[in-house]
Amino acid sequence: MTERYAVFGNPIKHSKSPQIHRDFAQATGQDLSYSALCVEPERFEIEVEAFLQGDGKGLNITVPFKQRAWAMCAQRSPAAERAGAVNTLYRDHNGELCGDNTDGIGLVQDLRNHGVKLAGARVLILGAGGAVRGVIEPLLAAGCASLTIANRTAARAEELARLFADLGSLQGCGYPELAATSFDLIINGTSASLQGELPPLQRSWVAPTTVCYDMMYSAQPTPFCAWAQDVGAGLVLDGLGMLVEQAAAAFLIWRGVAPQTAPVIADLREQLR
Ligand code: NDP
């Protein structure tokens, strides 16, 4: 019997997850279907319960439901527990609803694919929203020496720094408080690029060896990537690889098989052109 998977969100029509998971299934010989469903906010919990009956085996959850998915879970992975957000749902052998957050694993894996050294790195994260919450724990677990979170609303960055303080060296602040020193890795986790905007960036953060990473991706360089190239960053990456790697981590949780990601990333990049 074909087992069913889906991504729930609102809006959802531009989601690339169905294509990614179908490619994984084909490459690994798994018999599954994967669809994208736009869920009305008042029906989210009902639709999750209904889907995960019978042959509905797993769900990805995206904006704006990750926190509500977290609240529904009886069991959560350590990464999801801390993040307060779940992007991967499934039932365990006892039928309990389990949640994970694979965004951070996806980011760390994509950085590794590009040879970025995280052990000992001084990292600056811009933004303090849902995506950033999911990546802090995996970045610290990968051995980053320090993590500075800067956000337009400083209080949200300070709150995140407090929440994860026992895991490593963390600082949260607003943009004006940031020192003019350089970082090894700068991650743009704001949604500013979606409006074609940029957070207030300082040239002095970027040394010739600095890696700049935008969680957003697009056919043309995102405004953040264009800025990073302009100021001479050593390596500039967008979030397409993160998207595919977080999907691969979900696929592994559900199916017990790790799909190859490089061909899928290359195909998606080609389609964006
Ligand atoms: P949220 O809405 O939860 O958070 C948005 C963040 O961006 C907030 O910190 C907000 O600051 C900040 N922000 C928004 N506009 C501006 C601006 N003009 N200037 C400065 N800061 C701004 O979004 P998410 O965390 O869910 O998503 C963030 C980004 O990450 C999106 O671009 C999304 O596409 C991407 N993403 C990529 C993934 C991937 O797999 N590649 C996975 C998940 C997300 P404030 O708190 O002050 O409002």
Number of separate domains: 2
Strands of the widest sheet, in order across it, are 2-1-3-5-6-4
Structure ligands: NADPH dihydro-nicotinamide-adenine-dinucleotide phosphate
Main sheet overview: 6 strands, mixed
**What's the average pLDDT?**
95
Describe the overall structure.
The chain is α/β, with parallel strands linked by helices and 273 residues long. It has two domains: 3-101, Leucine Dehydrogenase, chain A, domain 1 (Rossmann fold), CATH 3.40.50.10860; 104-240, Rossmann fold. 37% of the residues lie in helices and 23% in strands. It contains ten helices and twelve strands. The protein has helices spanning 17-28, 44-51, 66-72, 78-83, 103-113, 130-141, 154-163, 223-230, 240-255, 262-272, and strands at 3-9, 32-38, 56-61, 75-76, 88-91, 97-100, 122-126, 146-150, 170-173, 183-188, 206-214, 235-238. A six-stranded mixed sheet has the order 2-1-3-5-6-4, with helices on both faces. Strands 9-8-7-10-11-12 form a six-stranded parallel sheet, sandwiched between helices. Strand 11 (206-214), helix 8 and strand 12 (235-238) form a beta-alpha-beta unit. The longest helix has 16 residues, at 240-255. It is globular and about 55 Å long. The two termini are 37 Å apart. The mean pLDDT is 95. Residues 63, 103, 106, 127-132, 151-153, 156, 189-194, 197, 199, 215-216, 239, 242-243, 246 line the site of NADPH dihydro-nicotinamide-adenine-dinucleotide phosphate.
